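Sanity check

After download, print the first record. It should look like this:
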Amino acid sequence: MTSVRHRKLRVLLVGPSLSILGGQAVQAQRLLKGLEASDRVSVDFMPVNPELPGLLGALQRIKYVRTVVTSTAYLIELLRRVPNFDVVHAFSASYFSYVLAPLPAMIVARAFSKASVLNYRSGEASDHLSKWRLTAVPTMRRFATAIIVPSQYLVEVFRTFGLPARAIHNFVPIERIPYRRREQLSPRFLSNRNLEALYNVACTVRAFQVLHERWPKATLTIAGDGAERSRLEKLVSSLGISGAVQFVGRVSNEVMDSLYADADVYLNSPNIDNMPASIIEAFAAGVPVVSSDAGGIPFIVRDGENGLLVRVNDHEALAKAAMRLFDEGSLALSLADAARRDCETLFTWSAVQAQWETAYLAIHSRTTLREGHG
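Expected structure tokens:
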């Protein structure tokens, strides 16, 4: 076997493609793009949700059947591709998503004596590991060469279950996101989360209704889509603010950049969360952030320093905190400036590139020593 000292380390990223809504897919593509320019690592991407041709593609459109067809195709592709790489980097969410996507990748990697990174990214980790203690925890311990998470919050969660993990932050393409210092705020509010129950966008809508009472010309743009959209549209109507709230659905990166540029306050009210890239994007754009203190958010948003935090599911507190940005002189600008500095220091590709490359090399060396080959 050729030593990796004389060639680039070969890394296979295994995760959702952008056809699946969510931060995992976005971060996977950002990591892929960053590593493509590396002089230490060569990288390729394999989707956990392959789009199949012909009859198989038709079967993927049938509920339940699509899970069997897609999972079978995914496993076959793992068996074909994993032998050609040194490290398998598997993106992971919680519950059955863990079983269907990263676990097979780690098992196949172990079968071929390859190193594997479990890149666990879900704010539901504590609940997942508690309820699946007899399955998730042992399989992570058995098959993951290393566990890497986006935040110190998840490092601490995994530690409580006896699983060592290290944190490498999410990052944003800061050079692509227009930055504007908001010397004078206007009541233009933005929400950018998937419309799922755990992100509690309903709390943001209720907070906005309070804000709209103060500023009748205030607007709220809600980007994203999901199972809660119909319920949220009905809530907006029932609160009498339909004319002030715009649902724009899922949008491209370019459109999202323009939404950040147009907004003056970012509202975020999840019940469960880890390290949302949308907050870091708001940091990059200079949009002051007002958020609930769910999960790992306090590890990136420091209340009163680079953003404002309130209790989970408290729309009145969320609205009151947003009003502070307008009422307390230079508060909004000082928070946004501090957030931008944090983004430049911590949440860019240049800040995390060496961490990823070093981690890959270390776990490959560990696997090589364990398997007894060079």
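If your output differs, re-run the checksum step. Summary of this record's structure: The first strand starts at residue 9 and ends at 15.
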